[in-house]
Amino acid sequence: MRLTPRERQLIQAILDGAANREIARLFGTSEQTVKNQLVALYEKTGATSRLELAMLVVKGRLDVDGDAKT
Predict the structure, then answer these.
(1) Domain containing 25 — which CATH number?
(2) pTM for the complete prediction?
(3) Given this model, what pLDDT does residue 42 score?
(4) Is a pLDDT exceeding 60 seen at residue 69?
(5) Considering the domain boundaries, does residue 22 fall inside one?
């Protein structure tokens, strides 16, 4: 599974504790766009929440600098 640069940025923002509003401001998009991107990212990774997404990174199953590890 390949993550796009934007997906990696989104995950990093989540790890940094940013809320959707902050992420939207950082990316120059709307909050709804961030929500849509999160839903797509959850589907792609199998995560069901921000916490689970972060745990995939912490456990080494998802690398924000590269690709998912399986």
Answers:
(1) 1.10.10.10
(2) 0.84
(3) 96
(4) no
(5) yes
What is the mean pLDDT of the segment spanning 24-44? Answer: 97
Give the domain range for residue 46: 5-58
The number of distinct structural domains making up the chain is: 1
Q: Nearest CA to 8 among 47, 33, 36, 41?
A: 41
- The answer to whether the Cα torsion of 59, 52, 13, 28 is positive or negative is positive
d(CA 22, CA 68): 25
15 to each of 41, 53, how far by Cα in Å? 14, 9
Q: Give a yes or no: residue 28 inside a domain.
A: yes
Answer yes or no: is 68 within a domain.
no
C-alpha angle 28/4/61, rounded to 5°?
120
Residue partners of 37: CB distance under 8 A and separation at least 6: 6, 7, 10
